[in-house]
Write a structure and sequence with these properties.
Elements lengths: L1 H21 L5 H16 L6 E2 L1 H17 L27 E6 L4 H9 L2 H8 L5 E7 L2 E7 L10 H10 L9
Parallel strand pairs: 1-3
Antiparallel strand pairs: 2-4, 3-4
Length: 175
């Protein structure tokens, strides 16, 4: 019986190691766009977000999953949001903010698009964010960040649009 447990443990560790070592390194374009996010944050007096490989791997997974399975939303077809995967990727935050972009897979274009959207801009500039990453796969780019006390609610893109269309200006929001 003990050998079954050992075998399962070895398989679980091998799965995590395989995923870690098979994820490509961030491209120069992704890293440059991430630096642009930090430059934007500095221009508004916000602290920088530390680039985190774990967030990068999760962002790539999210972008690849949407591209492969043909959906584009914060909620998977099974009803999961990005925070559902945090523990699997070794991310200690229970709540993760996510920006999505589809329209060419260009990280700089994604950043420009997010800056023009109230909810996406709020995520980029949220003062409590400490760690994050940006990843693009094909036509889909994903920005993830976490930190601070904010609890990001899991909602579909449609729900998020309605929220930002009806919510008054938030105390830490920059227009």
């Amino acid at each position: 019986m003990r050998w079954i447990f050992v075998l399962l443990l070895i398989l679980a560790l091998a799965s995590v190691a395989w995923r870690y070592h098979t994820t490509p390194r961030p491209s120069d374009e992704e890293l440059a766009a991430f630096e642009e996010i930090n430059a934007l944050r500095r221009s508004y007096g916000r602290g920088e977000i530390a680039f985190d490989e774990r967030f990068y791997r999760l962002a790539r997974f999210r972008a690849q999953d949407m591209l492969t399975r043909g959906y584009f939303d914060h909620v998977t077809p099974e009803g999961y949001c990005v925070s559902h995967y945090a523990e699997e990727y070794g991310i200690p935050y229970g709540s993760i903010a996510e920006n999505l972009y589809a329209g060419g897979g260009n990280a700089s274009e994604a950043l420009l698009s997010w800056q023009g959207s109230r909810g996406h801009r709020y995520v980029l500039l949220y003062p409590g964010h400490e760690r994050g990453a940006l990843a693009c796969v094909g036509e889909v780019c994903v920005f993830l960040a976490a930190g601070g006390e904010k609890r990001w609610r899991c909602m579909s893109g449609e729900e998020a649009s309605l929220y930002w269309d009806t919510t008054p200006l938030l105390p830490d929001e920059v227009l």
